[in-house]
Protein 1
Amino acid sequence: MFKLIREDIQTVFLKDPAARSKLEVIFSYPGLHAVILHRFANKLWKNKFYFMARFISHISRFVTGIEIHPGAVIGRRVFIDHGMGVVIGETAEIGNDVLIYKGVLLGGTTLEKKKRHPTIGDNVVLGSNAILLGAINIGKNAIIAAASVVTHDVPANATAIGVPARISLGHSPDEVNKLEHAKLPDPISEAMKFVLEEQKMLEQKIADRIRLLEEKIKSISNK
């Protein structure tokens, strides 16, 4: 447990350039407080101390503005930046090295007591106010753009952007932490660009065929 907490503190320095000292991080980062309190609440939840787990979760929500159900599974080195308004449901699962910005919702879409919240892979970035609903899977190294609404699976190394979110493929794992949130690829414009390029290729093929046909006709008429 304390090894995980040390990792959580170190992760703040890796993912937030504003962090200046351990003292500042320990006492002034609500995202860190929420994750640490969740680790204790989750331990109690696993041991069936449900009331105490929910109570700690409730106190954490009051203090940090971040609501994490004690049943949710959170991996190592997860950082919630600022965090106000983040809501993580009971059956949500979050992998390692995930970066979560303020206002993110990992919500459910059914009243049945089953897996009903998203599963987030390793090294995923969840942009501000992104909404992810249902028992969907977000592949590792994926990026969910700010204010996107995701209701379907997102493959690894992909970017989901828009309402509803559309998938843009192609960035490498090395680009995940370097990709600027304001310059994410637009899958609609990418699709239009692809169509225009295909149209240009077809037009060129037609022009080449017409030219060859004209040359054949000219050759026949000369004979």
Protein 2
Amino acid sequence: MKNWIPGRVTLACDALKAAVKGKKIALMMNTSALTNDGRLLLDVIVGEKWADVGFLFGMEHGVRGNMFAGDPNIGHLDEKTGLPVVSLYDYEGYIPPTDKIREVDAVVFCAQDVGVRHWTYTPWLITLVKSCAEAGREVIVLDRPNPIRGDIVEGGCAETFCWGYDLLAGFDYPLRHGMTIGELALMYNEEKKIGAELTVLPMENWNREMWYEDTGLVWLPPSPNMPTVETALYFAAAGLMQGSNYSLGIGTTTPFRFVGAPDFDGDLLADELNALGLDGVYFVQKYYQTRVYGREGLTLCSGVMMCIHDRNIWRPVTTQLHIMDTINRLFPEQVNFERSGIQARMRMGTHVICDKLARHESLVPVIENWQAEAERFAVRRRPWLLY
């Protein structure tokens, strides 16, 4: 890439090359793991023979992003490198198997987080740290930016009952955690006394006030439903509702930006949400077509579109609780927040939200409690901040 202009932030790729030299390793990464010049890190490590690579761990969407989530064919031979791909979906709890890890000296992890707790790649890293500790092998993390800033923390911490469940919560950290993957791995390993031989290779020139586009790094969608960096903010404002029976616009060109259903009154919903005067966001009524749970083909939905006018002051997690609260008040007979069963509660990290919604009680006390929890976590996380 002769015309590539380096960005302000630099990933520690040279340090990674030195760290794996002479070792037999496994790679746990996907298409979001790019080098500073935008090449797929997996292909660089293998092609330039940085180390003896034994196998690849396949996470959601596969190592090359060419598969549906949970696709049974994730385990196969990688068509470009010829290396075996070990599907983590083949193991109970999707936990990296210690017997495979013992075949190598170290496992290298790199995947783009989106700054939201229930994004599966980062909880997968947490399970890897524990598995490597049990196997007595090193885990090496090539750190990457938090795309929605590292200085803002929102939401309550996941409660113990959902740690590790279905990759929706690694341990007790908030919904919008404001940390990097490396920092979370360090925090988990040291705070929970896991005892893994953990090496985190930090970035250069990243600071906590940066949005992803400030870094100069290439953004490659880590999931089909995360096409842009802005989508990560909408995910922070709608992701908890993925277990509901209404639509979040998944399948449209702007997933998680819409909230609606065939039988919602979008004008009423927009008016009620705008009356709350939430900082940094405005809601407009919107018709859109998408797939809706329980219906065949595309369905016309009426709802709202979130329009960010100041992302620096917008608090998407707080907005999300207000959206659920308002929908429950306006359309109580039309909504089911637990269509996906226990997974809905695991995603929220608590029983409190669903319990209150079921009793048609306000979520305002949850908002206040979560703000206090976020403030406590902002202090608790300090020993593990690298930047």
Protein 3
Amino acid sequence: MIDAQSTAEIRINPPKDWLDAPPHEAAPEHWGAMPVDDYGNETPIIAPDPEPEPASVEAPADPDAILQANGAVIETPPRQYGRLRVHSVAEILNAPPRAYLLQGLFAVAEFIVLWGQPKTGKSFLALRLAYGLALGRGMWGRKAPHPLRVLYVAAEGAGGMGARLQALREALGDDEGRFAIIAQPAQIGPPGEDAETLREAAKAHAADLVIIDTLARTFGDGNEDAAQDMGGFVVECDAIRHETGAAVVVVHHGAKAEDAKTPRGSGALMGAADLILQVKKGAEGAPSVAIVQAAKDDEDGAEMPFRLEVVTVGEREDGTPIDTCLAIEAEAGRAGGGGAKLPPAARKAVDCLQDMIADGRGAPLPSGTGFPEARGLEGVPVEAWRAECDARGLSLAEKTENRRRAIGEAMTKARQAGAVAVRDGIAWPVRRAGT
């Protein structure tokens, strides 16, 4: 008899072929015998139910496909590679249209060059445009969409800036803090010591428009004729545009020749500009003009006449007046101050107009395209002016139609000489007769 301890030590080593073969093929017959319960009854083995086949699940519908089927336009976000963005043609075509700051001229975040020879009034014009845009007012019938926030870098002519701004405020109104000025030289071009701080100032002011007046006073130590140095200046202007979204206008001098077709220095400046405005001084008696010399997305060749009006803004301690100039719109082809002397009949017509206004028979000029924006100017209806000329005996012809014709010729000559302006049936004096 074998005791329990001995039984525990017995090891069964099945043949090797049992281990290598599948269990039901190699095992002895009694290994496959049906198990029995405690009473010797066979108990069949019940195999578990097989796992159910997973139900086929229909793939969910593509949301984009549903939206497109209902007329929606699916926009794919542009791919970004560092600071470079790749757009599809559809994205470019669906992009918002170019937004203007001054209709047909200045657009958001563009680079603009305004240049001209010395004494053409380019800085006065740039300042008038900038200050007017801060009030939401354009020029030449070109509207501003809303009042802009402007940062003006007056690196040239800073000493007279107070008088110029006083004249603009009196003529156009209060800017309500939207116009800010840096009235000192600044170094934007190479090595660009003030470039970063200028960007910070533009961001802090939330500028829509930055005017740099002039390139020469902000260029730095570089050579304007060297493409590399001029390119460095352009890069700093581009940084202002890209970091703030503001348009940048650079006021620049022309080349030495009076008939120069390009501004001074390397052509890299013009090559980078979205808009180039050339300012030309008018012939004797004629207005000056700003010409669209080149525009990447607008029509070239547009001419916008203006003239400089001398205004007095105060008085010095010794009693002498403080004068400055104000750039105002002019009618194309109309002579400005300093034209030829008026014929006697035309001079008398102007006297009649001026006397009517002095007598209190004038009315403030309306605001709108073609009317000067200086405050305090008055005019009278053209027919009232004509009647005054007739009443004061400008023509002694017996027949009414002959007198009317003579008076009409005198009024026309006064307009042609630039002594009087007429628009929408209203006449007002531009300068005193006989000058």
Protein 4
Amino acid sequence: MLIEKYGAPSDVVEKFDRYSEPRDDAAKMYEVQFDRCKYYSIWETDKGEIQLSIDHKGVSSCFVKLAYFDKINSAEVKKQALDDL
């Protein structure tokens, strides 16, 4: 649905920290559990970024994460940090 709404992602990563790619989805998720794999796609919009990823919490819990990064509020926080320097 993200592709339908926003078009093709600006960045897509499926990277394994091994010499060979796992053969099936169960083996791929095993690599995610042990933090030996990165899965994410990023869409850039006028208002910020949207990131869809497969992540994990420990070795027993993998999940899909949808994160929104608001460009306007991020710019304001950065401005305040720069003013503090």
